[in-house]
Specification:
By secondary structure, the protein is an alpha/beta fold. The strands form two sheets. The protein has a seven-stranded mixed sheet with strand order 7-6-5-8-9-11-10, sandwiched between helices. Helix 14 crosses helix 16. The protein is built from 20 helices and eleven strands. It has two domains: 135 residues, Nonspecific Lipid-transfer Protein, Chain A (2-Layer Sandwich); 285 residues, Rossmann fold. 46% of the residues lie in helices and 16% in strands.
Length: 436
Amino acid sequence: MGILNKHSDFEHGFGRPDEASAAGETGFEIVSTLLDGYQGRVAVRLWDGRTHNDQPDTTCTLQFMHPGILRDLVLKRDLVRLGEAYLSGGQKVEGNMESLFELGPWLQRLRLSASSKLRLLYLALRLPSGLDRDAALERRAGSTAIKRNSQKSIAHHYDVSNDFYRLWLDPQMIYSCAYFRDERQSLSEAQCDKLDHICRKLRLQPGQTLLDIGCGWGALVIWAAKNYGVQSHGITLSKQQFQYAQRRITAEGLTDRVVVELRDYRDLYDESRYDRIVSVGMFEHVGIRNFPRYFGKVKHLLKPGGLFLNHGITNDSGWNDTSLQQFVNKYVFPDGELTRISEVNQAMEQSGFELLDVESLRRHYAYTLRQWVRSLEAHREEAVTLSSDATYRLWRLYMAGSAYYFDEGSVNVYQVLAGHTGQALSVPLRRDDLYS
């Protein structure tokens, strides 16, 4: 039934109190060896209350609820399993969860002597195991071998429930990077600024047609229709997003100017043509080998002289099947793939696009994620009621970790504005109009 159900009290995993005490001593020696010289912001607390690095300036405490998790960490070095232990309740994280990810670089740089390694293995083998897989997590991770960018893969992430997302997103339900004036600006204002920034980059004019691929809950297509007078067409693969967008369009009296469909971009009619096309936070699901098909489809749908803005997450290393990526693919985005912005730009150029503007929003995404995490934590009880404790923990872990990596720089997000090669006449000579 899961770690907490079997080991709600640490002593339940031991036959006698002296065994529990011995395990605590063994565990503390392991932690002291791994963190010898560490002076960061994370404290580590064991199942019996022993704590390492409990200093006044620590901002986060990682608590091992059972020795079997520490045993796995030493013997298997499986970060996916470590993340699963947190999702199941076998670990607790108090304080600023983003700080927790500082331990990763420390452990990667750790260099131990051969004798120290042998000692760690010996100590780990002395710790009890007996950890069960959590049934709820297995069900969530059970359908990862699914069609890339399919309705099933999108539902895995986005169809938790609209009410769950409403707890921590802004009032317009925008689940992508905001655009901040500074870190103090409210999330709601920064998201409005993002919508307007995109519309300005696209140089939208009344009467134009706009296609939004992966329109989410409909914020951008509605904003563009209301504020720029365009005819907006949005598509999504999430049923819950589609239903929410439909209700909002009707409530705002925009049914004559905004259409949202439950449709795959690959199924858009070839005879359709748009003055402007935008995609925000969707192409990470496309898959790198499908870039030619994706960008080729967009180019075919874009009118001569039209503009296309692609907003998406990249990394600094290209696609690598790391343990971190395995965890994200297993529990968060089954079909997610990231690569360098240079590879994205090359794929766009090979599809016949001329790149007109490339802007990094990396710091903006770190600010966005931190506000999401704070809102989610503030609504913990409601989030658990609407979903589950494991789901709450998953989003907290995923978003805090993402904030860390955006801030650290190994993950980025770019807006790339493009037009047909040799036909890019829809933008002025300077960017003055974006900021006037």
